[in-house]
Amino acid sequence: MYLIENAHIVNEGRIIKGAVLIKNDTIDSIFKGEAPASVREKATQVIDASDCWVMPGVIDDHVHFRDPGMTEKADFYTESKAALAGGVTSVMDMPNTNPATISLAAWNDKMTMIGEKSLVNYSCYLGATNTNLDDVLAADPTAVCGIKLFIGSSTGNLLVDSNDAMTAIFSKVKALVAVHAEDNAIIAANVAKLKQQYGEDLPVSLHPQIRSHEACFKSTAWAVNMARKYGTRLHVMHISTEKELALFEDKPLTDKLITAETCPQYLLFDASHFETLGARIKCNPAIKLSTDKNALLKAVATNRIDVIGTDHAPHLLSQKEGNALTAVSGMPSIQYSLPLMLTLAKQGVLSVEQVVEKMCHNPARLYRMEKRGFIRKGYKADLVVVRRSDKKEITASDVLSKCGWSPYEGMTLPVSVAYTFVNGRPVYANGIIDETNKGEALKFNP
Fold this sequence. Notes:
The protein is an alpha/beta fold. Helices cover about 30% and strands about 20% of the residues. It is built from 14 helices and 21 strands. It is globular, with a radius of gyration of 21 Å.
């Protein structure tokens, strides 16, 4: 048994000073104030969490761990270590791997592989294509976290551009449909126009003009309209523009079928940062204007943005070289997502309770996750202990992702992760990782 005492427990909209008792893999008891002496005596380890927040482990609904097929960039072992260091206890991996996760056989093979490597809990999406509706409809909603739909822009055969296929997905799929929404025709027209102006070698700083506001809004609006027409459980990922926010309702997640996610990079960077960071912050959708960043920050402090995911997408730095068309898109984020969001909270942009709502509670609610995402008696003991006052600069030497770099290098964080408990075990403890512990496959209540 583990007893975490003297903690500032952040849970379900409030902060209380208290203690949490962990027995086996679950939360056994929550105490307001001190735990009884009899409980303390029985604990095999007592952790003093003075000047620490204790919160549910982060659930990241949007990661690209590059496994299988691109393991020179990342794999489930290395990226789950980075997740642990960032207080992330559960992840949901995207299907654009090699092979792509677009059949139930590929999904089962991938889940078996993940189970052998991952130090955190896991599920993975089944990717939709123009031709795999039978597999999509046959997916087990208690095991498959969702169906990933790339509308208008993607790589390989994951692009869905058939009207019949998209209508069938929106009208027939009962599982959550998570979408990447950008309009490919607008993107192509933007490229052609900019090439006429600048030539073939387009600067990386033009990426926001290529993957423009209009490309995002048109595709997102189409998806939202389809979901309203058919009653689809729609989750729009990585919202990057102010204009898109008007498509979503400002009310609790439990009261709506159409939800929105954004990511730390859209809250911390804007187009001016391309001058210093270049392709390190090139991602899809593109990071846009400061007005978009400020609007997204305000939306996170309301119910218009429901979830913070990372879109953790590592690449080798050598692959980030090139121009707006040749440098690859994506960046590692998972190790620093919670500390960065808590930094915004300490700056007064939002509250610590809102960070927990968007990174822990709401992902569990949205995916109808079984007994995770909250500090409740009988729930899985996925917890993170965060030092509230512990300044440290991010350096490349601290990065645990296999790619070995971070776009956030040089930033100073005022908080740090001390412990990450996964299924009742302190798998990350003051920088030491217990690599013998493996995560569990996530379960859902459809």
